[in-house]
Amino acid sequence: TTHIHPLEVNTLPFATLLKHPYLNYQQVKVILQLRKQKGKLSGWENLQLLEEFTEADRKRLAPYLSFSSLP
Questions:
Q1: What is the mean pLDDT of each run of 10 residues along the chain (71 residues)?
Q2: Which residues of 47-65 are buried (b: 16+ CB within 10 A; e: fewer)?
Q3: Rounded Cα–Cα distance for residues 34 and 16 (Å)
């Protein structure tokens, strides 16, 4: 996991997020919709109740996504 550079969920555009092999079109679409509604997403708690994200998705994606806006 030391070579993983997490994707910044709060700033990256649709096309960049969609390139990740563990994210599908619907998941990226709902992330951007949520970002538009709420502004900054604070973490998995924003996604865990959505039908597009299962517990298995959370475990698989956790090392690859970042919810902070800091560099």
A1: 83 96 96 93 89 93 84 50
A2: beeeeebeeebeeebeebb
A3: 17
